[in-house]
Each structure stands twice: as structure tokens, then as C-alpha cells.
Amino acid sequence: MKKYSFIVSALMIVVVLLSAAVPAFAAPDVVTLGFLAPITGACSAEGSAARNAFMMAIDEANASGEYPYTINVIVIDDQSDPTVGAAGAQKIVSDPTVVAATGHWNSGVAAATSPVFMENEIPFLIWGAIREDLTSEKTYPWVTRSAPTDVQENKPLAKTVIDDLGYTKIFMVSTTDSYGSGNTVAFKKELASRGLEPVGVEEVQSETVDFNAIVTKIVSSGAEAVYWGGVNTEGVYLKEQLYNAKADVLFFGISGIKTDDFLIIGKEAAEGTFAVQPGVRLDSSEAGRKFIEDYESRGFDVAINAYTPYAYEAATILLQALKTLGDDPTPEKMVDAIAKGTFHGVMGETTFDEIGQTTLVAVNLNVIQDGQWVYYEDSEYASGVRKFGGKE
């Protein structure tokens, strides 16, 4: 009996010693985030600028000493291709240190990767893709979006062009991809709500460069304005060919054309292009001005465009969510920290609604004047010094 008691006591001592030697929880040395954007290809300017802004925020966080681990990033070049994006998402979710991911600029790519992240229970924050159905009751809470939807961009654009500027004879041209078709539906609804119909509607394949036949239809339709429901990749050719045909129309669209790449056709051809851009004016707040200053001081080879601040905002959201979890971040904890959190960044205060869509909806208007994008309210078009096409 004494021998048995001795053995039990000895075992208890060993267990106590082992318990003291091994901590109850081992904090990770590295926490990884995924980032997806078109770094190469036709949309590389948008994706590269977004990547730059995202990494700028991560570098600042790692240098701050405020996190008990190193934040690593897996950067995926999705090439604006859903297949490439889905393969990149698989690479991200296969890394056991990944706790969240964010992407894309293209809606079709986001539609392809969201299921991958959901199936693997990795929270996915959309920073740029705007197709309305990317956030829904089915995707919540694993998918959230900090950018506005195509509907939220088209509504203020329609108000300005139709209600404020007085254009009613509008010809619509869009791409057949999910981005273009979403915009077609959204802007048609805006016209219908005012008792209007487009004077013409055309859809083109992505990478279309010859719009001359459509330009002829636009001119013969008597259109005062042309709504472009795609991105700059094709839209820039349509605008150039309208200019060459001396078509007297206002050319306008949402944020897909708000990029310096649109200026490649020359300042005369690009002059007067009108676009809505998501978010507040960056120069209207101290945080926004600091973001511009910090980005420009890095010497990046691509300029800030419409969604660059949203990529930085996505990083801010993920970083603030990480901070609330201390030294124990996991995908399971991150999904609630993101979906139910309140975040403060260069755009203002962000929260998400019951389907994961941001409640922070703001836009600003821009026009190309003398070869550069300027805020519409600061332009000579707003003051009446210059006139848009299609109006005397």
C-alpha cells in the first residue's frame, strides 16, 4: 500500500512539473492574411495600387510593435480571371496560418473565390468588387464587403446626370460580364423609376476595341449622353471613337472608368468624361490627406485610383479585428470580429449589415479636365465655365 501511494504521488509530481513547464496556450509567431487583386493584365493599375495600399498598412502594423506576432501576407495575382482567382484562393486556404483574406477588383473573380473561402471557413472581405449579389444572407457572415455595390454607385450617378444635369436621352453600352450586366440592370432601374427608357442598348464582349458600328448607332439615335457600364479597359476605346466621330454627347459611368489609364487616349479625347467614385473625398479629412501623403511618398509606380483607399481600408478592418483578439486569432474568431465589429479608417466608420454589406455608403463625382481627373465640384464644368457634350 505504501509502495502504491508512493507511485501515485510521484506521478502527480511529474504531471504538475510538466504542466508548469508547458504553457496552456502557445501564441503564434506568424499570422497570415490573403490578398487577391489583378497585379498583371488589363486591370493591373487598379490591382497594383490596391496591393501597394494594402501592404503599406501591413508594413505599418508590423513596425508598430502592437501585435504579438508577425503578420504575413499571401499576395495572389488573380489576373482578372475567375479560374486564376479560384486557384489562388485554394492556395490561401491551404495555409494553416491564414485567418482571413480580402479581394478583388473584378466581380466575376470574387464570385469564383467566395465559395472557396466559405467552404474552408476563412472569413473573406471584399474590398473592390461591386456586384450586388456578392453579399447575401447565404454568404453572411463569412463574406463581407467594405465597398459599395453597383446599385449604390449608379443611384447617385443617375441623380446627377438625369435630375441635376437634365439628360434624358441616354444610350447604354455595357460589357456582357457580371460587372457590365449588373450595371445595365442597375441603371435601367434608375431610368425606369423616372419614367424613362434608354434610346438604345448595346452589350459587347470583354476586350472589345472596335466600337465604330455602335458609335454610328449612338449618333443616329439622337442620344445626348452615353452611359458606359464597363471598366476602362474597353470604355476608353468607346470614348476615343466617339471623339473621332465628333459625337456631341456626355460620356459617363461608374468607378470602373475612374482611373488614370483612361487618359491614354489624350486629353482632348478624354475631356469631359464624367464618373462617380466610391468613398468620401480623401482630401476632406486628416486621415485621408495622410493616406495620400504616405502613399505618394513611397514612390509607387501606379497612382491612387478609385478603389486604392478601399484596399487600405480592408487592411485597417482586418488589423483592427486582429487586435481585438489579442494573441489568439483564429478564422472562427475573426469571422465574428469582422462581421460584428466597428472600424475606423480613412473612409470613416465602417460596420456591416445583416448580409455583410458596409453601412458606410459615400460617393464623390469626378470629371476629366485638361488631361486629369478633378473633383466635379471643383471643376469648370460645375461652375458653368465649360459645358458637357449633348447640351447647348
Describe the model:
It is a single chain. This protein is an alpha/beta fold. The chain folds into two domains: 30-147 and 282-360, Response regulator (Rossmann fold), CATH 3.40.50.2300; 151-278 and 365-383, Rossmann fold. Helix content is 42%, strand content 18%. It contains 13 helices and 14 strands. A seven-stranded mixed sheet has the order 7-6-8-9-10-13-14, sandwiched between helices. Strands 2-1-3-4-5 form a five-stranded parallel sheet, sandwiched between helices. A two-stranded antiparallel sheet has the order 11-12. The radius of gyration is 25 Å and the shape is globular.
Concise description?
This protein is an alpha/beta fold and 392 residues long. It contains 13 helices and 14 strands.
Describe how the helices and strands are arranged.
Blueprint: H1 2-21, E1 30-37, H2 44-64, E2 70-77, H3 82-93, E3 98-103, H4 107-119, E4 124-126, E5 143-145, H5 150-164, E6 170-175, H6 178-192, E7 200-204, H7 212-221, E8 225-228, H8 232-244, E9 250-253, H9 267-270, E10 274-278, H10 286-297, H11 308-324, H12 331-339, E11 343-345, E12 348-350, E13 363-369, E14 372-375, H13 380-383
Parallel strand pairs: 1-2, 1-3, 3-4, 4-5, 6-7, 6-8, 8-9, 9-10
Antiparallel strand pairs: 10-13, 11-12, 13-14
Helix pairs in contact: 2-11, 3-4, 5-6
- Radius of gyration computed on alpha carbons: 25 Å
CATH class (first level) name of the largest domain: Alpha Beta
Q: Any idea how many domains? A: 2
Chain-averaged pLDDT: 93
Helix segment count? 13
Distance between the termini: 109 Å
What order do the strands of the largest sheet run in, or round the barrel if closed? Answer: 7-6-8-9-10-13-14
By CATH, the topology of the largest domain is Rossmann fold
Q: Which secondary-structure class do the elements indicate?
A: alpha/beta
Major pleated sheet = 7 strands, mixed
Helix content: 40-55%
CATH superfamily of the largest domain: Response regulator
Q: In the CATH hierarchy, what is the architecture of the largest domain at level 2?
A: 3-Layer(aba) Sandwich
| Inertia-based shape | globular
* Proportion in β-strands: 15-25%
